[in-house]
Amino acid sequence: MEQLTLPAASHAEGKITLPGSKSISNRTLLLAALATGTTEIRDLLASDDTARMLESLEKLGVKLENFAENAWRVTGCNGDFPNKQADLFLGNAGTAFRPLTAALAFSNGNYVLSGVPRMHERPIGDLVNALLQAGAQIEYLENAGFPPLKISPVTLDLSQPLQIRGDVSSQFLTALLMALPLTKQQATIEVVGELISKPYIEITLNLMAKFGVNVVREGSQRFTIAANSQYISPKEIFVEGDASSASYFLAAGAIAGNVSVEGIGKHSIQGDVRFAEALALMGCDISYGKNHITARKPAKLKALDLDCNHIPDAAMTLAILALFAEGTTVLRNIASWRVKETDRIAAMATELRKIGAIIEEGADYIKVTPPAQLTPNAVIDTYDDHRMAMCFSLISLGNVPITINDPKCVNKTFPDYFKSFAEIVKHA
Description:
This protein is α/β, with parallel strands linked by helices. About 30% of the residues lie in helices and about 25% in strands. The chain is built from 12 helices and 26 strands. It has a 5-stranded mixed sheet with strand order 16-17-15-2-26. The longest helix is centred in the middle third of the chain and has 14 residues.
């Protein structure tokens, strides 16, 4: 297995230009493909997850042109994919797999969707159940409730509200919202239970509106899409920098110096921009610009007890910051961690113990008590999870060397992460 050893470091300083948001990139690609007209998408994230979406759209007959660096011209198909038969491999890209499942369920074709073994362990039953209520024809090819899937032409029935659980993954609701305009019928979605990761739904609704479809909503429980809704190209769209990726560099500033991230500002449409608020609660000095955020190290970092429903991905970075804070940090309402690229609560607990931390984990929370001294030369397993690798790089800023196993797993969202990290790190 490939390994990367990061030397001990004591200071972090500089500016980082963020790669495009994964969540915005894959949503925008699909909406552009389904729209009428041609859309130029700029600052698109170049990563494994977006590559899987681009490959799939091409297989479905969508015309794509890479006309400049991180810029793609997408000729929309007016809600009707030209190719009615395709086998799609989507790796471990939930932001591609879930929305494409819903869009293809309403596309009157024959499709098979598969991924890597971990994707076949990530639940999709709640989304499929909602699609079946609408008359979709979907079969599980291996285990019920999980990919791979076989999709056949639909017999639509939207006379009753579609019910979908909200407490497993917000991607299920996102997928349904994005796909229902293809039916041309009025459709209502009712969310059963608490909706987790609400900011990701705000991203979805924001982008749908940019493509001409406005959803009528009653809070986070009921959403209605008008009959004859149609996606229309906005001609040009810019992808914001990735707020989840920003968390590692802002954390570096909070731990060891003064770091700015460029590509997002206070009014970002991404929920993970609120990670900066969590840093402020820990005592960090945070400042905002229109398109940048800066974090500076305080005299001391304070532990916090936080409901993390609004920042599920960036909350992982708080588990690392807890090692540098006074007291015990508690991160709550993070059950969604269990069904991500790996079981992130279990993985985080296992690897934090290697650093010397005292950990308590529950079904939907983790408590982190820092050790008197960080354990040097720990070897961190990353579980084919990009966020595990990026999070644990920050340990080196505690003046201890650390080894990251399988560092290239960061290719999923941020292929140049370790190069960017090295640019801000000043070694002891």
